[in-house]
Amino acid sequence: MDKPRGLLSKTLVFSIIICFMLLSPSAFAITKDRFNHPPDAPWLDGPRRVRPGTYDWTFRAVDPDGDDLFYEIMWGDDTSEEWIGPYLSGEEIIVNHTYHKYAQVAIRARAKDIHGDIGDWGEMAIEISETTQQLSSEPSNQDTINDVPISRTIMDNGSLSGYVNDIFGNPIERALVRVYFHETYEEDYSDSTGYYHVTNIPICYCLKNATCSKEWYKTEWVLLGIVENTTHDFVLTFFTNPPDAPEIDGEKGVVPGVEFDYYFSAIDSDGDDVRYHINWGDGYTNTTDFYSSGEEVTIGHTYEKEGNYGIEAKAIDIYGAESDWGYYIPEWRNRALNFNLFEWLFERFPILEKLLNLLR
């Protein structure tokens, strides 16, 4: 009679366990923290020189997680659009605005995802004036503009000079600096010290589009009001491929209050040294020194209490190019995969142990 009774006891216990699983599925669910990232800075497009009136501008931002987005737009004339949307990630939206006065302004926009994370500002400089001649289109990063008084006097003795350096402050020789105006341009090449000097630029009410370019570097441009002896220094960034997303691993059986080691490595296709920006998920971050491409880096960290933390890290090369994020979930000692099922159930549901004891 013992065997049938034992079989009945086990059947009853497992039946109770199944009932608990059906009634409380969240207690048995294996969850992973959601890594949310803010949207990228919006891309702006539209007319750069207009007369007073109403015009359309286009805005587009991409969310790394594919979330829907809201937009905040600052028009540069003390008016704004407050979090319009939602729109799909990557969707181009068209918003119109009316300018009433002559001015040089910057349209600024940023995006917010549905979780409330806000991205960086995107910016576009425009001029509201009596002429609608558009500026030359050059691929580049946008800089600020200089305010200049409106004047109808035109003279050809304006000039632009300065230095061209890389991000480390080293002079760049043979960089081409070109100033566009009235459907033509003047240009000069930087010398061995990085110095350039562009002359014969008309002095008038319009802004000039000054560009700086060199092979293997990203082109930079800026809108400037040119007068006599105007100066502007350019900083060029070398074209570089970003590193791969870091691979992350760590010691098993993490316990609160004890430092454990975690391992980070990333490969840069250009062979550049990389450093790591690490978000530990508990409010602490680290940025390491530079290490060789592919070198495994060991970083210790202590979690003060147990929780659903997720480690994320990105690699940054010496030119500032950033990788995608790499992820890792620390494995806590009492969450190891080889845990005893009955011990875990008894700890979470003490009534089960009492029921089993009654059946023995």
Brief overview:
The chain is mostly beta strands. It contains 3 helices and 23 strands.
Core attributes:
Immunoglobulin-like; 3 helices; 360 residues
Walk me through this protein's architecture.
With 360 residues, the chain is mainly beta. It has four domains: 2-31 and 338-359, no CATH class; 35-133, Sandwich (Immunoglobulin-like), CATH 2.60.40; 135-239, Carboxypeptidase-like, regulatory domain (Immunoglobulin-like); 247-328, Immunoglobulins (Immunoglobulin-like). The chain is built from three helices and 23 strands. Helix 2 packs across helix 3. The two termini are 13 Å apart. Residues 24-34, 132-153 and 335-339 have low confidence and may be disordered.
